[in-house]
Structure formats: structure tokens, C-alpha cells
Amino acid sequence: MHDLVTTALDAARLAGATYADARVVHERSENISVRSGRVDALESSESLGIGVRVIADGAWGFAATHDLSTEAIASCARQAVAIARASALTVYSPVRLAEVEAFQDVWEGPCQIDPFSVPLEDKLAVLLAADEALRVPDEVAVSSAHMGFLAVHKLFGSTEGSMIEQSYTESSAGIVAYALGDDEMLPRSYPNSHGGQAVQGGWEAVLALDLPGHAPRVAEEAAALVSAMPCPSKETTVIIDGSQVGLQVHESVGHPTELDRVLGDEAAYAGTSFVTLDDLGKLRYGSEQVTIVADATVPGSLGSFGYDDEGVKAQRDHIVEHGVLRGFLTSRESARAIGRTSNGCARADGWNRIPIVRMTTVSLEPGDWSLPDLIADTEEGIYLETNNSWSIDDKRLNFQFACEIGYEIRNGKLGRMIKNPNYTGITPQFWGSCDAVCSAAHWQVWGLPNCGKGEPVQIAHVAHGAAPARFRNVRVGVGR
């Protein structure tokens, strides 16, 4: 890999690049799913290639190839320079990058048991056992169990002197039971919806989830949702579980504070942002209880790494501090535009994509409450758990979220089950209504391996740490 990167950098310099970096990326993936007692999918893939990014005549150029011969890599680097020079004809201001230290380093993520060494029969046994337990209640019409694995080995080098090797393994797994009601299908998932939980780690992470052990409870709750009361339409207090709070952070804090969106450089895919540069240090984003950090150093998180794909060291940075906007998610280019250094949020989806601003582990910091005490302190409201769907406008301001299950709160106690609970809000008002966050004992990092952005689209693997939190005066039962 070192020789490949060096070849690319040398060729780019000789072609006239004033800056160049190159990334060799080798990825291996496997996905297995079971549906209603049958094996639904067995998929595996492998990818290897190099991407070369350059600045020439003040403009970006990028090219990539899967042909790793010396001649092909040199040609790829020259093509990147040619693209940069063509792009320079329409650039209104030259590209400038924030300073970064040069690193020679090796980083490896946690993994105790290589999942690719585990026999397929063992993986299927776990999924089939969980799937069978999901189908016990008559109300469950469809059951599903899934696990997936990704191994990444990559090397980054730049003309500024960095040469950084990184490797990590990701594992994900989850189950869902679909109960059939009157003209509706009601899902109940574990440990989270939309694929379950995803972490940096190996086979040990899947075993720790104990999918077969949790399947009976999931099935029973799915069956109970069929006869549960619909979500009432009113304004009330809500307590939202950690996994849904994590998604709320993703959609209404993570995306709108990506600096490329704020600067207007990202608009085609899912819009821009309601936040402006003038809001920095001034905007009341939430209440005093709301502190949100971007932290790429959290062990085992999908949003963690040693260095981003520009060679910037992983770090922890405040985005919102006690309710006030303090920072953005930045790349070297966007950080320079606001007079700061990059906080390491530039990542690419593989070797054939250019790095763009992406979330790391963007988390709501824990508070002091225990969940039982928080419920006991709530006279009336709804407890919401596990995302079912989401919708938010192109500036990340107005949103609506639906969850899989809810419970009435009356006189400080959980009451009747609620199906299809949903809520709506406006981002600063909603976060401003947060008056309590549960403690570190309830705080968990939730992996999100399907965040789309950019054209051509790039899928980022990010994460969000969160604990249950309480919000006052929230509109629920939208559309009812």
C-alpha cells in the first residue's frame, strides 16, 4: 500500500499539483438475513482501489481506479490534475486548506473475534433461533433477523508528509416482528429499528446482543400493539428513549451543523441548513440541559477512527454547549473559511469517492436523572421508544418522527400501551423544551450505518450517544 500511495503522490506532483493526497482502501463485507423461517439473503463483496485528490491552479481534482499497476496509478494522478485545471476555469476563489500536522501512524479499531472466521452455520443458527421465537404469537405475520459485517483496511498519504494506516471491523445485528392489525402492519424491533445495532467490533458484539433471548419479548410486544390504543392528538410532555434521541440528534443537530451545508456547498442531497455563520456563539439551539459533542474517539463507535480521510487526528469538540451553538462539523477547506482548524469530520465512502463533511459520534451529553425517577417526576405525558419513521425539511428545521411503541404516563407511572406514537416540532423550540436528560448509566452509543449525503451519493457510518430525555409541550398524534 505504501508504494501505491507514493506512486500516486509523486505523479501528482510531477503533473503540477500544489497539494495531493491518496487513499488505498480495501473493504470486505458480508450480510445475512432470515425472514419468516427461511434464509432470505447471503451476500458478500470485496473492493480494492485507490483515490487521488489534488489541488492544481487553485481547484480540486479527483480521480480513482481499481487498477493498482504503477502505470494506472500514475495515470489516475495525472487525470486528477487535469480535472483540477479544467475546474479552475470556473472557480471564483482558490481552494485553501486549514493547517494540519503531518502524522506517521497506525490505528486499529477493537475486534476480539474476527466475524469472517466464524462459520456460516453458526451465524445462521443464531438468526434462525431468533426468527423462530419471533413467530410464536399468532399476531406476528412476518419475522426478520439480520446480521452484517464490514472489514476496512486503508492507507492515507499526502504531499504534506502524512502516511496513516487504519483498520477496523464493524458488526451489526437486529430482529423485528411485524404484527398484522386492522389494515396496518406494526413493527417491533430489537435492539433498534432499521437494521438493529451496529458497532466497531467483532463476533463478540453480535453474541452480546443475545437476539434469541430477546425475541420472545419483542414478539409479545408486537402482538400487544395490535390492540393498543392509538396515539392521542394533543400537546403534552414526552420522554423519548435513547435510541430515538440519537436519531433526533442526527437529523436536527448533526446535519444542520455540517459546515458545508451552512456555507451552501452542499444543497442537492437533502438540502442545506437553517443555521448561519452569524449564529456561531449566539444561537440558542436548546435549553441549558442540551450539550452536544462530536467525538471521534469513543471506543467501539461507528463514528470513531484514528484520523479522518484528510489525515486530521480524531478529536472531541463541542457543537452545542448548554444550549448555545459553539461549533460546526468541519473539513480542512470549510474550517479555513471560518478561521478555524478542522475538527476531523471529512470522510469518504470508499476509495472512489472524495471526502466530504460527515458526522462522527455526535452525542447528547448525559444528565443526572435515572429513568424511573424521570417517569415518576412526570405527572402526565407519553413515553416513546424506537424509531419507526422520520421526516424533516431541507433546512433541518421542521420535523415529524414516529416511533414503534409508546406508553401513557399518568401520575408518575407508565400506563396503557400506545401504537404508532408520533411527534412534531421545530428544531430550536424542541431542543429548548428539553428540561431533563438521564444519567450516564442510561447513556448508550447507537450506530447508524446508512447516512446518505452528496452526489454521487455517499453512505456514511456514523453514531450517536444518548440517554432518555424529557421534552415539554410537544405536539403528538400528528394528523389524528
Gap between N and C termini? 58 Å
Number of helices, where a helix is a run of at least 4 consecutive DSSP H or I residues: 10
Q: What ranges have pLDDT less than 50 throughout 5 or more consecutive residues? A: none
* Helical content band: 10-25%
Q: Which descriptor suits the 3D outline?
A: globular
Instruction: Provide mean pLDDT, rounded.
Output: 96
Main beta-sheet strand count, sense and barrel state? 8 strands, mixed
Domain module tally = 2
In terms of quaternary structure, the protein is single chain
- Overall strand count: 24
What structural class do you assign from the helix and strand content? alpha+beta
The fraction of residues in strands falls at 35-45%
- Output the radius of gyration: 24 Å
